[in-house]
Amino acid sequence: MKLHDLAYFCSLYNLRTFTAVAKHFNVEQPTVTLAIKRLENSVQAKLVFRDRSKGMIQVTPAGEILYRHAVKMLEDANLAEIEIRQYANSKIRFGLPPIIGSLYFPKIINEITDAELLKNLEIDESGSQQLLTDLMTGKVDIALLATLLPVQNSNISVNFLGSRDFYIISATNHWLAQQEEIDFSELKNEPFITLNGKFIHQHLLKLYGHQAHFKPRVVFETQSISTLKKLVAKNAGIGLLVGDAVNSHDQLSLTKITPALPERFNISIATRKDYLFDEQEESFINKLLLLQDRINN
After folding, report:
1. What is the per-residue pLDDT across 237-252, written as a single tens digit (0 to 9) for each?
2. d(CA 218, CA 240)
């Protein structure tokens, strides 16, 4: 099977007309038709047939099977090209979420600098939700991730480093500042400020709301932890944040959430399974593993 034939077939599966596929790839329609015929000859089965009444194609059971495998084949081929190009590159493509970057990564910066790795880091600073996608698609090769539950993905290799608790954060003059703990159901009428969907915090807020049988009222979303903390400190709303992200200069109070969910701020090193590391990437991962003791102590 040729990869470009599979690409035409996957596009046909989604677009449902030969004309649309030809237009998408900027080729003549017979080129697409021949590609599908080559695939059918290869698997010795009919993949699609034309539904004249609807002007579109219908995919056969054999076509459904091929599509599921073809998508993975094309993804693997694309990753192979990316990794081969990257292997000759001196850069370490590293995903680092802002919270981990500000709180935990500095704990090993001296070791990274001493090993002369800092100058070779090419850092993608996004939320963990986005970084997991970037890792799967080959935009980064190594990432420190924060996840609500330990990572369970057959395509990802994980080294778990530790976990921290989430808290409700509020201004020091907010009524919550007097509470050591709060049942989340008592926050039904409170305005929330949250990090956007690239971060795990927004999903956790929804989970707490679901457990308490109400939808939290989000009045502002941001991708900046600093903005979140400043707005909460000004009493524009309350927030949900890992406790380590709050320091004495923030003018914020922390309140424990009850009943607690099993979800925590789980920190892990993540790489694509079977990714071939070069010498400096292996050295870098060894430095990241030092965080296991430094996060938990």
Report:
1. 999 999 999 988 999 9
2. 11
| CATH superfamily of the 92-162+265-296 domain | Periplasmic binding protein-like II (3.40.190.10)
Q: What is the pLDDT of residues 165-194, one digit of tens each?
A: 999 999 999 999 999 999 999 999 999 999
Burial annotation 102-136 (CB, 10 A radius, 16+ → b, else e): ebbbeebeeebeeeebeebeeebebbbbbbbebbb
- Which H or E element spans position 58? strand 56-59
Alpha helices in 115-257 (DSSP H): 128-137, 201-212, 225-233
Q: How many CA atoms lie within 13 A of 288 on its CB side?
A: 29
Confidence of residue 129 (pLDDT cuts 50, 70, 90): confident
Tokens of 109: 């910066």
Q: Which of 250, 283, 236, 245 is nearest to 267 (CA)?
A: 245
State the Cα angle at 207 between 202 and 208, rounded to 5°. Answer: 100
Comparing C-alpha atoms, which of 116, 14, 108, 3 is closest to residue 64? 14
Q: Mean pLDDT across the stretch 102-120?
A: 92
The correct CATH number of 3-87 out of 1.10.10.10, 3.20.20.140, 1.10.238.10, 3.60.15.10 is 1.10.10.10
The answer to whether the beta carbons of residues 147 and 128 sit under 8 Å apart is yes
